[in-house]
Amino acid sequence: MKSYRNQPKSYKLWTVGQRVEWLLSRRRLTQTEAAKLMGISQSTVANIIGSAARKPSAVTLMKMARALDCAPSFILDGTGASLNYARATRDDASELLDLFKELNADDQNMLMVFARTLARKPSTTDPA
Question: For residues 69 and 55, is the Cβ–Cβ distance under 8 A?
């Protein structure tokens, strides 16, 4: 593992792999130990750490965030909590959020109306 004593002021400057490697070093985990905790292969962990351009899938990202106890956004772009993160407990919830973020604003609004209807929650734009 690399030494991270001279870390940049912003984790945003790091690659996904550098942030994952830093999280492993903070928790004193090997790639093999981390892969076991994450429920993924050690080669997947190694590929993410070793490639400046590789990003995990949504499901793998959530497994990594849970195992490393951090916000998924910290792994992806250096924002959010790097330690002790309250996280989603279901992969389908994280997938839904990932899909939501890919939609344009109009489709996001339409999905929110549909979700509120299914959950029988009032719209935030409905008059009281």
Answer: no
Do 22 and 14 contact (CB within 8 A), yes or no? yes
Q: How far apart are CA 50 and CA 65, in angstroms?
A: 18
- Indicate the pTM of the whole model: 0.59
pLDDT digits (tens, 9 = 90+) for 70-87: 888 899 988 876 765 544
The CA R_g of the chain, rounded to the nearest whole Å, is 17
Instruction: Say how many CA atoms lie within 13 Å of 107 toward its Cβ.
Output: 6
Neighbours of 67 (CB within 10 A): 20
102, 99, 103, 96: which is closest to 118 by C-alpha?
Answer: 96
Tell me phi and psi for residue 56, to 5 degrees.
-75, 155
